[in-house]
Design goal:
Radius of gyration: 17 Å
Distance between the termini: 43 Å
Number of helices: 7
Order of helices and strands: HHHHHHH
Helix content: over 70%
Number of domains: 1
Number of strands: 0
């Protein structure tokens, strides 16, 4: 937004779009996923939406593109967060049986935190090497590629988290 000539206060308001989408979207998407018994589908769709939102920031380089990209990024994260956490115990059923659900979820949350710490460093490195627009596109591509890989792994390994059988039907 700075490169588009926006003031600091406009940039701050723009950044809030992501957080507003997260704050309001997360409980809505979580309830919807629970009510419909879906887990894998919201994670995949939300991840595509988040990665696509990042790509939008690169491809549609004006104020409306930034707003749309940030809204998509926030909505995608809101859609995928709760179902992903609820999938972990079923995907790691053997580990849950051996060491307990609390420990498995704790390890998952620690790995999430490692990503939350490493992410800004990766982003800073990408921005330093390639500039902000290309860094955003690269991060979007990483999210989209990771989503495709996750879908393929689930399909090949035959892993069926709760709701996956109903989602495929």
């Amino acid at each position: 937004m700075n490169e588009l000539g926006h003031s600091q206060s406009e940039i701050g308001r723009g950044m809030m779009i992501y957080f507003i989408a997260m704050v309001f979207g997360t409980p809505i998407f979580a309830r919807l996923a629970d009510r419909l018994g879906l887990r894998l589908l919201p994670v995949l769709v939300g991840s595509v939406l988040a990665g696509g939102g990042a790509m939008l920031l690169y491809l549609w380089n004006d104020t409306l593109g930034v707003v749309a990209g940030l809204a998509a990024l926030g909505a995608g994260h809101a859609m995928s967060t709760a179902p992903l956490i609820s999938m972990v115990p079923s995907i790691c059923a053997r580990e849950v049986e051996n060491i307990g659900q609390t420990t498995v979820l704790g390890v998952f949350r620690i790995l999430e935190r490692v990503g939350s710490v490493a992410g800004p460093f990766l982003t800073a490195a990408l921005v330093g090497f390639f500039g902000s627009a290309h860094a955003i596109a690269a991060l979007g591509a990483i999210v989209l590629t990771s989503t495709i890989m996750m879908a393929l792994i689930f399909a090949v390994a035959g892993v069926n988290p709760p709701g996956a059988a109903e989602e495929a039907a």
